[in-house]
Structure formats: C-alpha cells, structure tokens
Amino acid sequence: MSANTALAEKYRNNFLKEIEEQVEMGDWVKMCMQCGVCSGSCPTNFQSAWEHPPQELFMMIRAGKREEVLTSSSMWNCTSCYNCIVRCPRKLPITHIMHGIAEYAHRLGMAPKMQPTRFFSGLFWKNCTHTGRVNELKLSMGLYFKDGLGAGIKEGMKMKDVAIGLLKAKRLNPFELFGGHKCKDQKGIQAMLKKAYEIERSRKAAKMAG
Amino acid sequence: MAKHEYAFYPGCSSQKGASASNYLTSVESMCKTLDVKLTEIPDWNCCGASIGYAEAGELPRHVMNARNFALSEKNLPGQEIVATCAACWLGARETRERLTHSDTLMADTREALKEAGLTINEMPNIRHMVEVLIEDLGFDEMKKHVVRPLEGVKIAGYVGCQTNRPFGVDGESFENPQYLDKMVEMVGAESIPEYDMKVTCCGGALAFSEPEKAQAQIKDIVESAYDHGAEMIVTPCPLCQANVEIYQGQINQRYGTKFNIPVMYYSQLMVVAYGGSAKDAALNGQVIKARRLEEIAAKPVKR
User: What is the ipTM of this complex?
Assistant: First the structure.
C-alpha cells in the first residue's frame, strides 16, 4: 500500500483531521472564518488568480475535498510575502499552512509534477543542503535544464542578457559550476539533517497510529 | 574596542561572486565608519529560505538555523546574531520563535544537533542590520557621519516583504513603514513617503520559476517609482534588489516599457554620504549603473 493510500484510508472521511495531524500548522485550519482577507491580500492571486485561494482551500479541507486540495497547483503560487499572515484577523499563520499543505502533497506524490515552483522548491532545498550553502549558478542551471538539454539551452538564451549583466557586475561566478562556496563540516550537516528527518517521520507516524 | 559588536550571519547571496556581493562590500564600509564590529559566525550554513518548503519539512529547516545559533554560541558567546539578508533574518527569527515556544521541537532540535557535535544552551537574539542601525545606533548617530549629503536625489524607499512582515522593524506598521524614508532623508536625499508600492511583493523565488507572475509585480513596483519622480530605488533586501533591478530589460520587452532605474541598498547610499568612494560603496556591482551616485562619490569631501 502506498503512503498516500494508507493515509487516505486512516483518515477516511476526516480530511481536516489528516491536515491537523500531518501538516505543519494544520491545526489552525479550523480557525478560519472565511472572511477572504488572505485571498484579497495575496499578490499572485491578485495578478493571475490561484485555482483556489487560501480561504477557499480551508473550506475545501473542511468539506473533505482531499483529492482536489492535494493535487491543486494553488499553494505553489505562494511567494512567501507574509501579507496574509499579518492581515488575518484570526492570526492564522497562512503562509506556513500553504507551505505545509504543499509539502504534504509533494511528500505523498500528489502535487502537480510539472508545476515549476514545486520543482524549484525541491531543487533549492537540495542545492543548499548539499554543501550547506546555496550555489546560485547550479541552482539556475538546474531550473533551466529541467525539461532536458534542448529546452535548457532555449531557456538559457532567454536569460542571456540578465546573466551578462550579472557577470559584468561580478555578481555571477562561472566557476561556481566546478565547486563554489561550501561549509567545512558537510558531514556534520548531513548527519544532523538525517536525524532531523528520522525524528520528524517518527513523530508523524506516531500521530497516525495514535 | 568597537562601540557595537555582533556575531555576523552574512548569508549565501552575499558571498564573493554571488548576487548580493555588492551589499556585503558596502555594509563592511558602512560598519567601519559607524564603529560596528561584525565577526562572521565560523562555518555558518544556509537558512533554508522560505522557498525550500517542498522538502525542508519543519524540523530539518529549524535544525539548519539552530546549527548557526550553536556555532555562534560556541565561538562568539553572548553576542547577538546580525543578518543583512531579509530571508536569513526571517528564517533564523522564525526558528528562534518556534523553538522558544515548543519544548518538543527544542528537544528534537538538540538531538539532531548532537549528530554535528553541537548544542544550544541559550537562545540568541536575531537582528537585522537595519534594526541595529535604527534601534541600537539611532538616526542621530547615523547622521553625524554624513559629510557628503545626497542633495537633490529623489529616492523611492522600497521596503518589500520579508524585512517588514511578519516581524517588522522597530515596531513600525506593516502597511506603511517609515524607516527607509527616514534613512533616505538622513543621508540628505529626498524621500517619497507617498510611494504606494513600498511593501508590494517582488514575486520572491517565483522570479526564477514563474517569471511572468513575478515580473507583473516588479513592473508595478518600478512604474510607481517613476510615477513619483524617483531617480533610484533603495531597498534593505537582497532578493528585492536583484529582482527589481535585473529583470527590467525583460519587463521592457514584455510590456513595451522603457525602465532603466538603479536599485540600491541603503548601505550604498550611506557609504557615499559618509564620504566613501564608489568602490567602498560597491557601485560597480550595479547592473543598472547609478550614474548620479557615481558622480557624487567622485566629488571631494568637505570635512
């Protein structure tokens, strides 16, 4: 049984409880009073419209729309601007709930595969934890070449002028491709992160069993 | 001994050859004038930034920040941690809050840190450089060192998101913070308090992954600066700086605009006003050159 099926089975007909127990800050969802200030304050919802803005996602969770919520591209439109957090009259940590639902959907393999910010988010975390510090050049290259070599060259050409500007200003270093900045104690960082994932997994499993 | 000493968390983007290396150069010059001593936390690591959320989880993300706290405590005991990057400051402060409020999270963090041979005994204060300037030094102290006022330069103060929300600087309002305008005035330039895009999001990481969405935001931010007669934009955040500066060419192609406005750090304005050279202020690090500031920086200083 896949992790997704197991969780869906365990929390059958109670998606709100699933979100409360398995998603970071998920226990705040029930506090939403549907005023819509978050949706009206969101820059990307304002510019290009989310499929389901935050307050709608909260109601969908309470209505048990598991599949629709977890496969939605919405949470991935969050720019982490924190406008929703500071304006929410009930002080829901909405930015963190959006990140939490996105992380959960990604963990279960339900998040839309081709969503570019989902891809970039995973790439960023791998990039910065690999050596302990971000390698900006590898990060950009990883994004442009996500759909293969041909598409990558095309994407790279589109960014040519931006890259030349940064190179001239010495804010992009081509040698980052062969190493770049890193922490000394990379071993310690890897061991510490491995432990952190182990603990987090066991805490979530205990909630599911409890 | 320096007047003020802090443990310094420079962050990934400020490293040599990285996107905000000009920020660090100007901060170093600025701190020299103000007698602020920053000691880099040895072997500091990335804060994880907000955009790592797909795989960061809760504990791993906090453990990354906690490692920096532990290294700071071990090597620079008793010093507050100062970050120049908005995301570093926010990430570290958030970890500080969560660990302070949850014994479980704190215990789990200590267990993970053990694997790297580290521990935390005391929770450090996490400060942004702007907080240090405003709260610890104050505007009068900052102004004392101005020997070359940026007279007649009109500058839009773009605060952006993460140095403003959710924690804020000096208890200012989230909707209309004033401190950046006051800093513009402090260096002798002309501020634009009615600049209505001062806390609008630049799109953050979406500038990489979904540029059309971020560039729609950036267009509004730049357009409003022009509408209010600004010659340049100033910001305290490395991602705001990069996003608002480097995509102006692409925005011009997309929208038929003719944007070409320099985007500076507050520290660059201060270094020039303090009598520093263009090199001290890292003006060569601008993709869109700030000619007006270069001219001022070339003038002799009256002392």
Answer: 0.96
